[in-house]
Amino acid sequence: MIIKRRDFLKISSLATASLLVPNFLQSMTLDNALNPNQKILIVLQFTGGNDGLNTIIPTKNDIYFRERKNIAITDSLALNDEAGINPALSYFKEMFSEGEMSVMNNVGYPNPDKSHFRSMDIWHSASKSDEFLETGWLGRFLDEECYNCQHPTQALEVDDMLSLALKGENNKAFAFKDPKKLYQTSQEKYFKSLYDHDHHHDDETVSYLYQTLGSTINNADYIFEKSKAKKSTQEYPNSKLGKDFKTVASLIKSDINTQVYYLSIGSFDTHVNQNDRQQKLFGEINDAVKSFVADMKANGLFNDILLMTFSEFGRRVSQNASRGTDHGTANQMFFISGGLKKKGILNALPDLQNLNEGDLIYTEDFRKIYATVLKNWLNADSSKVLGWKNGVYDFV
What we know:
Layout: H1 5-15, E1 40-47, E2 56-58, H2 62-67, E3 77-78, E4 83-85, H3 90-97, E5 101-108, H4 116-125, H5 137-145, E6 155-158, E7 174-176, H6 179-186, H7 189-197, H8 204-227, H9 240-252, E8 260-266, H10 274-298, E9 305-311, E10 331-336, E11 344-345, E12 364-365, H11 366-377, H12 382-386
Helix pairs in contact: 1-8, 6-8, 9-10
């Protein structure tokens, strides 16, 4: 069979919905669910470099207010005697007070890179700043844990494109935006007849696309069926993130085999008029997380869920001339769960007297946090996934 260019492009378009999911080159039986009470990780990426100092505010630090005369947060919600949280994150304050949220400050890595793309690659791959890896930390987790798996839906990203974080050497996560739309596309007569007609081809690339097309069709059906298995009575905001969290919640409540979910929101690249932009994004995050946590609690699942946030870097301590902040270095991470072992603020606030040319100096390596989550939450061998042998934290 000679494939036409038009057909090749159509196959490629649907195959890309799963971002060339791993090498499952045979028909798949997707019937293995998670074990009861198995832990689930949700990663929420703050894309663009969120300003950590206007997120967790050092309320008693004169340097903060002096260096940010126009953008300092003066009405923060108190977390303790020295720190407050941005008022747009009011539900985060509630979770903090209830012992359902922890904060790790000063997270970063040696020799930080201020490029969005490079620093995000470093966070996604868990590499050193001078090391370039083609696999992500969660992708390598899939490689280690799923070496004999036939279920690519063990990790899902709610997006059109698959992030580096979820790409392993032998296994990759499955990326999609909307279960229903993915299913409807996969069921189009053209794709079904094309795959049924001839999915064996002499050309290696075309053959792989056909195989991926078949896998996408099978997985689209599986994800869609699971997404509607248990209807939620919980109301979610109509924002993009609200819809994404609703999708994740519907899948978690089913018996799908997914252990890792990946979401993102942005952009936090607030060089100009920072407070308005950050407040809007925080409002979306706050409302979406509030609905999601309520949903998980109502279904008795909150203790087995860990929601972790990160951003590729923070911002500089001093504001710029445009009432914004420029690319910086260290930042904080949030951990939200009903199963935290340590709650509250886990370490010291940023030291604003000891800076590196105007930037914060990291004290916690993000790879140690990844190692903690892998070992203590996902029950994985963090040293094999990360090559990290410098210990872990005990907050989960």
